[in-house]
Write a structure and sequence with these properties.
Rossmann fold, single chain, 2 domains, three-stranded antiparallel sheet, alpha+beta
Length: 288
């Protein structure tokens, strides 16, 4: 049974006390003189630091365990190595220079380290290594342009690059159609020549089969070019880029004159003349 009791009003107002049985409680109290509201005191929650430390150590343990299992599995190994863009260098040369092999750890060597190692070959102008997980490594090589060829001591064909580096062709079928350099012992002049050849359009060099040094006291950079059309061209390295475009015109005129051989001089003045053998031939016939 529920009952209520009205407490007389005081300076602060009325209080209404209600109760059920022997349990009484204040339902509404505007204020009572001398009575301060009691603050609510909450009990402290139990600390769980020990549990957190245990969970942290368990987490670290399982992460370390997974790391060990991963690096011992086949997923952390190199499965395939591809090489792209190479023409002068062989795939085997590039992979050997990179210092990696199928079965090595995928994360043991960075792409930047591989780029630096392959660049030391001297034939690569730019190297980019792409690593794709899991286990795929692609080495993309951009070689220096081949501007000429030469024969090595073993008789193999080597490509001469714009930086004057000589690199034997791994596959002769990839050899570019370029002039052969013979007798070049002066490294500085050879480098000047390769840089000049790199600046000349390929179409102007198609008829040139060989280039030899022919220095004089007055012209230390004098050279002789031999053409596939059987003409001899005398010029200088410093004149070559400017005057090589005249070669086709001279060859055309000589052929129209039925002169199947001759010397074309592209120096301070340009002209064509007969070879010394041609001028000496009539005298030898007369003696006979």
């Amino acid at each position: 049974m529920r009952s209520t009791t009205h407490v007389p009003s005081g300076p602060g107002g009325d209080c209404l006390i209600a109760g059920i049985g022997t349990i009484w409680y204040v339902r509404r109290c505007l204020s009572l003189p001398g009575i301060e509201p009691m603050p609510v005191v909450r009990g402290e929650r139990p600390r769980r630091r020990g549990n957190r430390k245990l969970l942290f150590f368990l987490f670290v343990f399982f992460v370390a365990l997974l790391g060990v299992l991963f690096f011992q599995s086949s997923f952390s190994k190199i499965h395939q190595i591809e090489v792209e863009g190479n023409r002068l260098l062989t795939k085997e040369q590039i992979i050997e220079a990179a210092g990696i092999a199928v079965g090595d750890h995928f994360f043991a060597v960075s792409g930047g380290e591989i780029d630096e190692r392959v660049s030391r070959l001297g034939a690569a102008e730019q190297v980019t290594t792409a690593k794709r997980f899991p286990g795929m490594v692609t080495i993309i090589v951009k070689e220096y342009p081949v501007v000429a060829l030469e024969l090595t001591d073993t008789g193999d064909i080597a490509g001469i690059l714009t930086n004057a580096t000589s690199v034997p062709y791994g596959n002769v079928e990839n050899a570019a159609s370029r002039p052969i350099l013979s007798g070049w012992e002066d490294a500085d002049l050879k480098r000047r020549l390769t840089e000049t050849l790199a600046s000349i359009e390929t179409e102007h060099l198609q008829d040139v089969s060989e280039i030899r040094p022919s220095p004089t006291d007055s012209f230390p950079d004098r050279i002789v070019l031999y053409t596939r059309s059987k003409y001899e061209v005398v010029t200088r390295i410093s004149y070559l880029k400017e005057k090589i475009s005249l070669l086709d015109d001279y060859v055309y005129d000589l052929r129209n004159e039925d002169r199947t051989s001759g010397r074309i001089v592209l120096m301070d003045t340009n002209y064509a003349e007969a070879l010394e053998e041609e001028t000496e031939q009539p005298s030898s016939d007369a003696e006979e």
